[in-house]
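Much of the work behind modern protein science is quiet bookkeeping, done one molecule at a time. The protein below has been through that process, and both of its lines are reproduced in full.


***
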Amino acid sequence: MDNNRKFTKLDRNLDVSEEELKTLQELERNDDGFKDEENTKYKKAGSPIAPLGGGDALYFDYTDEYPAFEDVIAIQFQPAGKIYWYFYPEQKNPGNELKQGDIIVAYSERGMELATVLNKSMDDYKHQNKINFIKNGFVRKAEPADFEREKQLEIKAQSAKEVILRVNKELGIKMKIIKVKYTLDDTKAIFYFSANGRVDFRELIKRLAYELKRRIEMRQIGVRDTTKIMGGLGPCGQTLCCRKHMHNFIPVSIKMAKDQNFSLNPNKISGICGRLFCCLGYENATYEKLRKDYPQEETAILDRSSNRKGYVKKVNAIGQNITVFFPENAEKKEKAEEKTFPKSALEFNNGWFINLPQSDSTDHDLDNITPIVAKEKELLRESVNPDENSEKPEKPQFQNSRKPAPKDSSNPNNPNNKRNPNWHGNRKNFKKFPPRKENKENQDINKE
């Protein structure tokens, strides 16, 4: 590598300070799905969904046949929650039909709950393993009594939240209670909380079980799950994507923000959950496809027109151009500068080259100012020294702002309303000036 190279690397370690780098690494951490939705240790072929309170619901075993698309339904237990596939072949019978938006009662990993029927996707169906399907989990369609019971349980959950806050204060446990939920059969109370590190809540569960008289389940969730449960508005002004339509979290990295030419300022690329924007992953596939025809940052590139070696500093796939940094040479005949070249100038032949005259490149050096062309000079000269024969525009005649002189009071019957000849344009000095003397010629004419 050239020792005289002064190009600043685009690597993360040198693009930002150490504090910002630590913050970006923290933002890049991704939670493993919805921790409040499913406990992976219970997910085994042929095993029940939940050992306690799961009813007869089981995961499909390897001996079971792969269910047909017409025999399964897709449901979710919370807004934009994880999609579950339930085996329910009875929906083909008259009176048992299910459509999108119907509310049903089904067994989940937590117990009996209300669920919403979704529109099935064939592509999503094909990507499911056999163990992802659940049988004997459908109970019935939701009835008015189920909705009324759900409202009563929400009131109970609010009172249970006050209880756990009081007990936490007595025991000195530091945790943030996000949500309290009762199962529809009112046999279990689930507490969702967030805390820094692990929490010893064995004594807390004993106190809660004694006061609430039902089974207690504590679930520690991450910041992304917390934001999904609580909801809110994003910087774009819309409802959060994880709350509105995202059924699964998208892994997001700093490289995505860098490829899309976003600033690596943590405050500008992080959401209210404290992680990178999920929307960075929406267009990542498009950017990866467009950047295949471009060199990567830090790649050496040679400009054949000037025979200078540079390094790619920035790739703008949408604008279809790249920015190249040319370091100062050893003889110091050429200064360090940055230039932007279009995509059409790129060539790859056992290395990257630029086949474009130097004049066609966009120079970012402030000292290189484009001179005025000859035609512009001629037009400028004509505007400064116009021809004598050219017609001059008439000057606009502005009305005199001076006040008119008072009329001659000595001759009020004058039809021409001549002004007083003693008027000198200033009303205050009107009496100070003597009357004007007429010329001798005028006096002779008057005598005759």
Observations:
- Confidence is low (pLDDT under 50) at residues 1-14, 363-370.
- The first helix runs from residue 12 to 15.
- Residues 180 and 191 are 5 Å apart (CA to CA).
